[in-house]
Amino acid sequence: MGTATGIIKALNSGIKHLAIKRFTLRYPEQKLKFVGDGYQYDPTSGVGIAGYKGRHMLFHDKCTGCQLCAIACEGVAEAIAMVKVPEEWKHNKKAIMPQIDYGKCVFCGLCVDACPFYALYMTNDYELSSYTKEGLIYTPAQLQVKPDVQQDVEIQIDERGATHG
Amino acid sequence: MTAKLPPGLKLQKVDERIMTLNVGPQHPGSGHMRLIVQVDGDFIVACDPDPGYVHRGEEKMAEYRNYLFNIPHLERPIIHDSCNILYPYVLAVEEIIGAEVPERAKYVRVIASELNRCVYILYWLGIYGIFLGHSTMFMWPMGDRELFIDLLEKLTGARVTHAYFIPGGVRNDLPANFEDVCLRQVNYFEKRIKEYADIFYNNPILIHRTENTGVLSREDAIRLGTTGSVLRASGVDFDLRTKEPYDAYEELNVNIPVLKEGDSYARSKIPWLDMFESCNIIREALEKMPKSGAVRTKLKPNPRGGDVTVYKRTESGRGSLGCYIVSKNKPEPYRLKLSVPSFRNLIALPYLLKGEKLGNMPAVYWSLNYWPVEADR
Amino acid sequence: MSILAPKFRLSYFLSSLTDNIFWIVVIFTLIGLPILFIVLFFVQLPVYESELINPFLTLSWIFHPELALPLLKAFLLTDMFRIIVFPGFGFAALIAASVIFIERKMLAKLQLRVGPFYCGKIEGILQLMADGLKLVSKEIIIPAKADKPIFIAAPLLFIGTAAAFVALIPVAPGWVVANIDLGLIAVFAVIGFFPIITVLSSWSANSKYPFIGGIRALFQMVSFEIPLILSLLGIVILTGTLNLSEIVESQANFPWIIFLPIGAIVFFVAMLAELERIPFDLPEAESEIVAGWLTELSGMMYGLVQLGSYLKLYAFAALFVVLFLGGWQGPVFFPPLEETLIHEGQTIGPITIQTPGLPIFSMEFFSGVIWFILKTAVVIFFILLPRGVFPRIRIDLLLDLGWTKLIGLSFVNIFIALALIYSGVFGPGGLL
Amino acid sequence: MSSDTETKDPETKAPEKKELPAKPEEQLPEFEKGLSDKIVAKFGEKTEVAFVKPDRIRINVKKEDIKDVAIFIRDDLGFDHAESVAGVDFPADKEIEVVYHLGNYTDPKLSRQVLALATRAPREDTPNPGNDSTRLPSLREVFYSVEFHERECFEMLGVYFDGHPDNRRLLLPEDWADLPPLRKDFDSKGR
């Protein structure tokens, strides 16, 4: 009786899995660990550095206001707008810097590729929710802040199955 | 009944036995599309698929953006297989602008593509499970998918829409220690999908239920131009990874699973066997990959092609995916056409559902490896 | 995790508390007390120290610990208690609720996930309450062209029928709501109501998917009632009685599953089909016909049907236990309560509780109920397990299974029973 | 490439790839050449071989002949299914091109090959899909698999396929009353 053995095998497999560890990542308490500090781009070699594509981080001392990130975003999401900043840097004559609307951003990272001065990085911060749409628009001052992330959970594999540690 | 109808409307004489069901888009068993199903008792008399619910004109959008900026939005039609939908596009653009791909990048692409294929197949399998009322087969693939999502996230920096392939290579090199993590998780995953056999694929109820339903003969599969798992389940050994190997597949050893039955059971089994093959390919590619080297050639800014037309095709998670680009000396494609496998498989649906039982509808429909969003583009 | 609401004010909080208390008091005085009085007028009250207790006395005595006890004792012996609380609806509903919770946690464990987790701090134990609250607070939407009286009545009928089914199950010796001689026939009669209610509900909804689901349910239930009934004939032949309590007592030495395993399997499969559990959940097949005959039910109407179906699940599992696993029979495995505790009472602080003659403190009762619940839990586990393991079956396979295989097997079962009788193993002058 | 984005790049770099189609006369791949030669030998003047590249052949035919050529390709060359039907709008030529990409599943020699069969239909400036001169004979009788592709082509470019059994809308909404959207004069607003 192939049918009977099949049914018994299936039931047995079901009962066996009652003893296997749960795989669920309990998100707000646990956060997955990522590689590196986020996606960065090396303009000299033309290759990116692997990392999570989360919220951007802008280095004010490197940004020249060349608008290349805004031009890159124009064809993708139109999330980047160049705004006036009060700071006056020698290399940023126009005193404009990107302002990113995370309601539109698709986190493709092409703006990071476009920046020739290492001024725009992506970070591991992905918790960007806000009560208002205005809250999603990050000004250059907000983008300057390095996010404080506590992500330490990794997938662990042992005899009793895989878990999120 | 006696009320006068407004002008322009006519009462239709319908056979009273026949009931028309609108399956979708708000139906749990349809996805983002509508199937107009006419049933006579428990038998389906006719089925008229009505896709287009999520049509967003990707092909038209592509005519306004240059070859690079097309990348993030061209992967939107199927975010679970985004590396594979970009693959033919990237190959075609490389031919148009004449870019060379470094050897290491070819292997990285193959690895990303195979990882992504598994991610897609697991998602598909989860939905196939829940369509057949098997909730465990929904949860297990969704959980195991996390292993590959995690790998792709380490590799590309995004969980679903990777935007990883780029004309001339890939966006970034492998992160440190990636090979070990990848091997560990792939090996564990292979052990894991073997456990699907007892509970799902060898389950007698599933076999009784899906065997001999929606049988697509070999001749019909060829005539209807189906592709991917549908074609291979009908006994046609056709997979572009072996038939027209691109990138690093030429050097890799690929064994394509082929089944002869052509019913929904075989169609659902092919992707499962494919995942074993993907694991082998990933392991082999990790081994054969050059340990160092460039992964991306520098392109000119804003590259533009000549006055050529290019048709490239690759094997995605659902079947062969073609990309036809007409270039007219511009940085943007003049016309971009994606010949997507879901759309090609859709034609088999009304053909297969005619005369089937209503209870078989989800099994046949989803076994076609059909992704509504991709079909609509 | 838990932070105060951003606009928290202590004064608002306190005023909301006093508001709540005020309304609770008002509602209790206006509604609760009259209802209590009405109930007390109909309950047969005991004579205590040569004084016939009336409802007013009851209300005043109920707060006195020593005087309340005879009242409680009297109440425990009433039919009302049996119907509402112990072997009847309350007990069954409690088990049904725990079944829902256990089902979710078990399925989650099988599927390597967590299941309800956050509601109620301990592994989501209050999830069911939250779901119930949600269902209660939801709007009930009735389709415009539905036959409203029948449509509204169907869930009530469903849960009523399920409760009637529960009433026939003996839980412990003497503890059954309706101990009738034709118990098994009554069970079949009650089961026969379910397809009618299903069809009524689905027809009155005037919608396509409920209609298909209702027809499917009708097919399924009718075709599986026959093997369900036939598979029990073996037991009736062997015991010679239709009374469920007597059937339990006939299994004092061995449960019937030892001699009639085929009957037990047939009954179990037919039971799964009657319960519309996976793999036989065709009437609610989600991917084919949305939610089957439940499609148009919303809010608490859906909640009632769900509660009814879990009551039904408990009742069927209990019926299986009663018929095949020997009901409350089982060895007493814990030491009996001390006599002094029963007769002289237990001192808790300033008061002494004396419980002479309380029916629930007999050894028989305790052991019986525990065995019964344990056996029912095992059966329920096997009812729940297929949900994680099997896909849904198709309607033609289902009917084929019901009409050919199961009926054939149940005849085999009857022949086994007859063979046992004629070979002299059972019956008058038999070996056992 | 540090910046993918300098849109105002000098146009002088553009014509570098322009001579691609002119070059490859001497190194035409043999097998593909044989296939195209067969078609030329059968139909002669009626067909025009646009290019023969490794694994790819493209043949332009007039719309009157496309059915015959398609039947020949199916029966004698062995291409058994159509992979895609792509319509391309050429407002400058006042024509709409429809390209059938044909492939083969069974023959291992042919399975690498994709034969593009292109034809052109006249284009009208004020289209009235289905009722104007933008018509082509349908290849649905020849290659069954073009059924949905031709339906898509009809709604996206307004090319009516004569002989198609089911020329209805497929992807676009039922109330679409604008131009066929893949025509070049349909401007997608906001890109």
UniProtKB/TrEMBL annotation, chain A:
The keyword Metal-binding applies. GO terms for biological process: aerobic respiration. It comes from marine sediment metagenome. Pfam families: Fer4_7. One of its GO terms (cellular component) is membrane. Keywords: 4Fe-4S, Iron, Iron-sulfur, Metal-binding, Repeat. GO terms for molecular function: 4 iron, 4 sulfur cluster binding; metal ion binding; NADH dehydrogenase activity. InterPro entries: 4Fe4S_Fe-S-bd (IPR017896), 4Fe4S_Fe_S_CS (IPR017900), NADH_quinone_OxRdtase_chainI (IPR010226). This is 4Fe-4S ferredoxin-type domain-containing protein. The lineage of its organism: unclassified sequences, metagenomes, ecological metagenomes. Residues 54-85, 96-125 form the 4Fe-4S ferredoxin-type domain.
